[in-house]
Amino acid sequence: MADTGWTRRDMLGSAALFAAVVGIPVAAVRMSEATETVSDRQRAMLRETAQIVIPATATPGAADVGADLFVLLALEHGLDGTRAPAAGSALPVTERRNVRRDGSFDYLAWLERRLDAGAHRDFLKTPPAQRLAVVAAMDAAAYADAGPDTWESPWRKLKSLILTGYYTSQDGASRELRYELVPGRLDADIPYKPGTPAWSSDWTAVEFS
Fold first, then answer.
1. Is residue 202 a part of any domain in this protein?
2. What would the pLDDT profile of 30-61 be if each residue is shown by its tens digit?
């Protein structure tokens, strides 16, 4: 039987295809030959965090649909500017240990340290309620209005990628949102009911730098 496993070339090709399908400039997907080194612990923490951001309800949660795996691929290839040089002098001294040799920021190393610091212990060994509280506090701090010159928390990028990974999945796009195979018909003055899902075919709300 032929081997059906993916090679690195397949992975790189799929990233470029994904970019073309959803309208992301191919240049935004960095085809680097330097494979991202991610520990099993970092993978577990990202998966847990993704599931906290979008937990399972009547529909699967973010980690259930593989949004965390999307984030890993996105980070490896620099989606949304995640492989750009770190913010130089604006970068707090305490965060410089998360900068790679090439000057880019290591988002997963930052997340690992941030979650452990928030939990005051091993984040993965804390009860679910405490994990939720740690992520909620991190989220609140990241979006606090601290002025235009304030260093932007890496959590903003990570959360954005989790949401993108989820709402471009089959469950996120067709069950959490409404999906129309061939959109474009004009329906004027449609009554809106509170709780009505948005359309997954509307990409105007997604921005990539």
1. no
2. 444 345 689 999 999 999 999 999 999 999 99
